[in-house]
Design a protein that fits this description.
Blueprint lengths: L2 H18 L5 E3 L6 E3 L9 H6 L4 H22 L4 E2 L5 E6 L11 E7 L3 E2 L4 H17 L4 E8 L2 E7 L5 E6 L3 E6 L3 E2 L1
Antiparallel strand pairs: 1-2, 3-6, 4-5, 5-10, 5-11, 7-8, 8-9, 9-10
């Protein structure tokens, strides 16, 4: 076999693997630690197939905004003095997806922002505020809790959903709630 024919054979084998999704190895999703097969988006069971099973991006974004509206209400109920900078949460930006969805056409993630509140949640109220957020978030499928920072006057906590979206709530000088969305198709 000549060097050219070996190269053609190798290219054909690589294309077959890419198009069928065979030979993929699990890739750990950094957002939620779940292993996801690294298969081609063209394969029925590959990354594109996973995204086809999820709600569409417009619905996910609407759900994220609804969740942040409830989170704001829960935080304001615990700390009535919070003054929100915006009248409602917004989709702040969109970006491409991470591996294994980074090459799926029409796939993106959204960043939803609560608008932030002037001032922090007092330490005496923080545990109650975080409990209220977790209760609201659980109704939306968020529950995998991670403590990022928890010290007097400075708290940053997150909960994740099964798709890898993260709801992050922090308080210090000011209070913020943000959703780093999961990957969805348009």
């Amino acid at each position: 076999m000549t060097a050219i024919s070996r190269g053609v054979a190798a290219l054909a084998a690589a294309l077959t693997l890419a198009l069928t999704g065979c030979g993929g190895t699990p890739v750990t999703n950094p957002s939620n630690g779940n292993a996801t097969p690294a298969a081609s988006s063209a394969s029925p069971g590959g990354s594109g197939g996973v995204l086809e099973q999820r709600r569409r991006s417009a619905q996910a974004r609407a759900d994220y905004l609804a969740l942040l509206t409830e989170v704001r209400a829960a935080l304001s109920a615990v700390t009535p003095g919070l003054r929100w900078r915006t009248t409602e949460p917004v989709i702040d930006s969109e970006t491409g997806c991470k591996t294994p969805f980074d090459r799926v056409p029409g796939a993106s993630i959204a960043l939803a922002d609560s608008g932030g509140a002037y001032g922090g949640i007092p330490d005496a109220d923080w545990a109650r505020a975080w409990s209220a957020v977790k209760e609201v978030a659980a109704k939306h499928g968020f529950g995998d809790e991670h403590v990022l920072l928890d010290r007097p006057g400075d708290h940053q906590m997150s909960v994740y959903d099964a798709e890898g979206a993260e709801l992050s709530v922090g308080t210090g000088v000011n209070t913020v709630a943000t959703i780093y969305g999961a990957c969805h198709l348009a």
